[in-house]
Amino acid sequence: MISLIQGKILSNTGAEVVVLTAGGVGYKIFVSPARSEGWKVGSEAQILTYQVVREDALDLFGFAVEAERSLFTKLIGVSGIGPKTALRLMSLGTVEEIGAAINRGDLVYLTKVSGIGGKTAERIVVELRGKIDKTTALSESGVLGDVIEGLVALGYSAIDAREAVKKLDIAGKTSEQILREALQRVK
Fold first, then answer.
1. d(Cα 107, Cα 23) in Å, to the nearest integer?
2. Which residues is 81 bridged to in the sheet?
3. Are 24 and 41 in contact (CB under 8 A)?
4. Distances (CA, A) of 46 to 34, 53, 99, 124, 129
5. What is the dihedral of CA 1, 52, 114, 104, to 10 degrees?
6. Burial (CB count <10 Å: 0-12, 13-18, 19+), residue 111
7. Nearest to 4 by CA among 42, 34, 49, 37
8. 102-124, pLDDT tens digit by residue?
9. Which residues contact 50 (CB under 8 A, 6 or more apart)?
10. How far is CA 96 from CA 8, 56, 135, 167, in A?
11. pLDDT score for 136
12. Which regions of the chain are under pLDDT 70?
């Protein structure tokens, strides 16, 4: 299995990156559009990959860090989730945000992806809840989850709410204090 490609980025369409290795072989790697800006054309890069072998294709899916690849493998293990759908799911946010949404059972968050309906989102939650590393889910658990829910209840979109709380320092603060700070940051 090909698990890492290192070389020069020849092209980056946002959904695919082509990497030319030192041996002169060019590999097309499918990547999450949300993460593709990290690979600039002409630069040297190292991309972690996951290889999917089908009877009519051999595809590579690329990731910047091991946590992304780990979440991807868990997602494609869910019945009805293929590799391209899993990549679209990975575009929802960071590994921590997606893991927290799964552990919380946030179906609204998961159904924002084209191709993911209510039943598929429920299946993801049922099959992966508790299997997502707890340390990756901490950023939106507890107090931050309450603040996000509060912002959504006030009429803000879930995406705007998550962005507003992403960079807040929550140490030693109550959820009310964090909510006030988030309201100042929300768009």
1. 45
2. none
3. no
4. 17, 22, 25, 30, 31
5. -50
6. middle
7. 49
8. 988 999 999 998 889 999 999 99
9. 3, 60, 61, 63, 69, 72, 73, 83
10. 29, 34, 8, 13
11. 41
12. 133-143, 158, 171, 187
Calpha distance 55→58 (Å, rounded): 8
Tell which residue, 83, 59, 79, has the closest CA to residue 71: 83
Per-residue pLDDT of 45-64, as tens digits, reads: 999 999 999 999 899 999 98
Which two three-digit tokens encode residue 45?
């890069």
What is the Rg, in whole angstroms, of the alpha carbon atoms belonging to the chain?
18
pTM of the model: 0.70
Nearest to 59 by CA among 25, 30, 18: 30
**What are residue 91's phi and psi, to 5 degrees?**
-80, -10
| Contact by Cβ (8 Å): 153, 127 | no
pLDDT value at position 25? 95
Which is it for the CA torsion 173, 179, 183, 187, positive or negative?
positive
CB of 125 closer than 8 Å to CB of 56: no
For every residue of 41-57, DSSP letters joined together read TTSEEEEEEEEEE-SS-
